[in-house]
Amino acid sequence: MKKVLLLLMVALANPVSAKDCEHCVNLPPWLTIFNPFSLPNVPEPLPLIEIRTPTLPRDAGASYCRRNTEVVDTIVFHHTQTSSTTTVQGINNMHLDRGSADDPWLMIGYHYTINSPYAGGTIPAPVVNQGRPFDLAGSHAGTNAFRAANAETRRLMSQEGAMRCGPANGPLAEAEDKFRNGLVKANYNTVAIALIGNYAKRTSENPGGYPYNRPRYPSQSTIEMAGKLACELQRKHPRLQTIKWHSYYNATDCPGLVKDRIPQIKAVAARFGCTFN
Amino acid sequence: MHIQLSILAGLLCTTLAWAQPQQEEMKKLFAKYDQIIEGKKDVKVLDVFTKKFVSEAGGEKSLLEGWEKSKKVVYDLSIKPSRSNKDLAYIQRVPAGSKQKAHSSFIVVKEQGEWRIEGTIEDE
User: Fold this and answer.
1) Which end of chain A has less neighbouring CB within 10 Å, N or C?
2) In angstroms, what CA-CA distances link B72 with A1, A202, A211, B37, B96?
3) Do residues B90 and B105 lie in contact, with contact meaning Cβ atoms separated by under 8 Å?
4) Taking CB atoms and an 8 Å limit, are B104 and A205 in contact across chains?
């Protein structure tokens, strides 16, 4: 009992204040006045990055999958292979537009987009936008992409309610394609971050890519934003501990030279206390 | 009444056929595109790409530089008309006869009445 009282006195005598930590906020004083058993001002980290949440139109006729967010363990980086000034609304419009009446797309396939200038450029203004909500499976890794996942992800994924799919205006039913030969469907346990721009080389399939003698890497500000966003997502979803890229799942040039900068993106996340495989 | 409906239906079909990019038109556009890649001087860049795309690429000279050389391939074109804009379509190119999946689409738009390449977008 004495020890408990001693600890309580020490705690009350040393409250954590905003002065101790630039990312911390104080609880309002009335909370500690009226609740003597409350913890002394618990540091509440401020968001590392502002994530805008624009209202994006959806196709009401499209089907989608709602997931238990616990199953999400991997971030997948993409580039959009568009101009760097394309907006999240523009990508959403194109993804809606490219579906057909028989196979409509719900909305943008990525969960987050990052607009940022190329190295040496000044436009567009850096901004992170939410695309598809986190609790909806994305449409980005490849419909037929299945990869190994750890035992905990497989256990969570096998639970009833982990992934429920169906039409937007109808009932959802448990997805039947969560596994194939013991592998997990990549779109289900991943979250997609797309760097808006074109970081792949110029080829007959990619006229907007960089000339082979002038590689186009993401700028430092882009890497900072990507690392902070990854860390912010891990803070909210602690099972998110792996970073991959589109070409890990499919034979594609995406995300171009962004792939070479994954170690730097992880290093930025590490500065804020986040660790990724 | 029947005649009027038939005329209307006929007009609608004609309009749709006119509005959507035809395979032949696209084949011509991409034949010119391949010539640009090969460095043929007799094809004008602005006959293939939109002004916006050329400008974003840093101008005509910049756009003509740095193409990665690849084997000459015959492609099949898959055309997806836009659902909301009759002057916009998405084209996928895959080597003829292959089961390969395209991982990006060309965006083509009508500029001054002619189809031009406006850019690309990554696919799933």
Assistant:
1) N
2) 83, 16, 19, 10, 12
3) yes
4) yes
Smallest Cβ distance to A202: which of B67, B80, B82?
B67
For B63-112, write each residue's pLDDT tens digit. Answer: 998 887 777 888 899 999 998 899 999 999 988 888 888 889 999 999 99
Give the span between the Cα atoms of A266 and A272, in whole angstroms: 10
Residue ranges of alpha helices (H) inside A108-219 are 151-158
The overall average pLDDT reported for chain A is: 89
| Residues of B whose CB is below 8 A from A99 | 83
Task: Note the residue count of chain B.
Answer: 124
Residues of chain A with pLDDT under 50: 15-20
Distance CA A170, CA A186 (A): 25
Complex confidence, ipTM: 0.84
Q: Is the CB of residue A253 less than 8 Å away from at least one CB of chain B?
A: yes
d(CA A27, CA A60): 43
